[in-house]
Amino acid sequence: MANFCAKTMPYRGLGSGIPRVLAEDSRVEFIDSKEGNQFTVRISRPLTAVEAGSNTDSAVSRDEKAVSKKGLAASKEQMLLAFCVEPKPLSEICKHLGLKDRYKVKKKYIDPLLNKSLRMTEPESPNSPTQKYVTI
To answer: Of the candidates 33, 117, 35, 37, which has an alpha carbon nearest to the alpha carbon of residue 81?
Structure first.
């Protein structure tokens, strides 16, 4: 099957793809059942209005999780803005937020705030190794 897919689909590299799925913050749950000798991937989808009415308890718990996730992102943004009162490089911002993936920090937290409440110290060269970010 892998041989067939390699010829018919665009090549994206070999591997499980799990890190890429986790990086997207999607609603994916990985279940490793050693007793049953199986690995299950559960992908949640948004509930429709009809399903939400019949599954009120599960809908509420999912909504609470979504709200807490949004609250966590908002608090990280607030931490970022408070930390960048003076110009800070991306590496220091990552350490301060307790996150390791520089790309994800830039994509998820810095890029949405740029030119709104955060600015680059070197806007003419955004990929500069000496680039720093400061609160406006």
So the answer is: 117
